[in-house]
């Protein structure tokens, strides 16, 4: 019992320390630079998303990282990666937390945002960029669960805390409607994928 309490206290202190670092540091550049050089632990989610993408369309991958999404997509017309670091020469450089937004050459049929919204300080500005440069969106997000600690979320570098209803409201505010909601990982209930299209579409 004593050991369990000590472990819990240790986890709490660690989470609070990570949370403070997140607030003071902003975007974790070291973490995301490393991410461009290895297959991410959440790549199974990318496979789930890729299976939802129809062939023959143009795709803007926002937060592309190591660009494993490119490998999973089948028979698309164009893949445009967008990230903090240029994994490939065609990468558009962006940092939403510092207001660095790329000029996207054309409006794409679909934007994919896998594992990025949790780390964005200004979600409204993020959605303005995405909706201006794509006709549809597939978004992943780890929704806030009832009773979940916001400090522990900050300890994961997650800087916002949207519930499932919040996500529906936020995307609706930007002219999008949810047409499909998927739990992308049966082991992590809060990890969800949303397929969205314009309300007027």
Describe the structure.
A hairpin with a 7-residue loop joins β6 and β7. The chain is of the alpha/beta class and 201 residues long. Mean pLDDT is 86; it is low at 13-25. Strands 3-2-1-4-5-7-6 form a seven-stranded mixed β-sheet, with helices on one face. It has one domain (2-198): 3-Layer(aba) Sandwich (Rossmann fold), CATH 3.40.50.150. The protein is 35% helix and 19% strand. It has seven helices and seven strands.
Produce a short descriptive summary:
By secondary structure, the protein is an alpha/beta fold.
Keyword list:
single chain; 7-stranded mixed β-sheet; 201 residues; Rossmann fold; 7 helices
Write the layout of secondary structure elements.
Blueprint: H1 2-25, H2 29-35, H3 43-50, E1 58-62, H4 68-72, E2 78-83, E3 92-93, E4 110-113, H5 123-133, E5 137-142, H6 150-155, H7 164-173, E6 176-183, E7 191-198
Parallel strand pairs: 1-2, 1-4, 2-3, 4-5
Antiparallel strand pairs: 5-7, 6-7
| Beta-strand residue percentage | 15-25%
Number of strands: 7
Coarse shape: globular
Q: Helix-strand pattern, N to C?
A: HHHEHEEEHEHHEE
Low-confidence stretches: 13-25
Q: How is the main sheet built?
A: 7 strands, mixed
Average pLDDT reading: 86
Kindly provide the radius of gyration, computed on alpha-carbon positions and rounded to a whole number of angstroms.
Answer: 17 Å
């Amino acid at each position: 019992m004593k050991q369990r309490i000590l472990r819990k206290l240790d986890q709490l202190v660690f989470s609070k320390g990570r949370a403070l670092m997140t607030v003071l540091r902003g975007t974790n550049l070291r973490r995301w630079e490393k991410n461009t050089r290895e297959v991410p632990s959440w790549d199974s989610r990318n496979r789930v998303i890729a299976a939802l993408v129809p062939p023959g369309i143009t795709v803007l991958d926002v937060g592309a990282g190591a660009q494993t999404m490119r490998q999973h997509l089948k028979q698309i017309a164009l893949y445009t990666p967008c990230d903090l670091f240029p994994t490939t020469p065609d990468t558009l450089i962006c940092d939403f937390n510092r207001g660095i937004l790329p000029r996207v050459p054309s409006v794409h049929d679909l934007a994919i945002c896998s594992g990025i919204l949790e780390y964005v300080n200004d979600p409204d500005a993020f959605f303005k960029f995405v909706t201006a440069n794509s006709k549809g969106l597939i978004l992943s997000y780890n929704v806030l669960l009832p009773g979940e600690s916001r400090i522990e979320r900050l300890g994961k570098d997650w800087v916002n805390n949207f519930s499932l209803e919040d996500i529906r409201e936020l995307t609706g505010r930007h002219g999008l409607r949810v047409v499909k909601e998927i739990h992308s990982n049966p082991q992590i209930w809060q990890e969800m994928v949303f397929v969205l299209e314009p309300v007027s579409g």
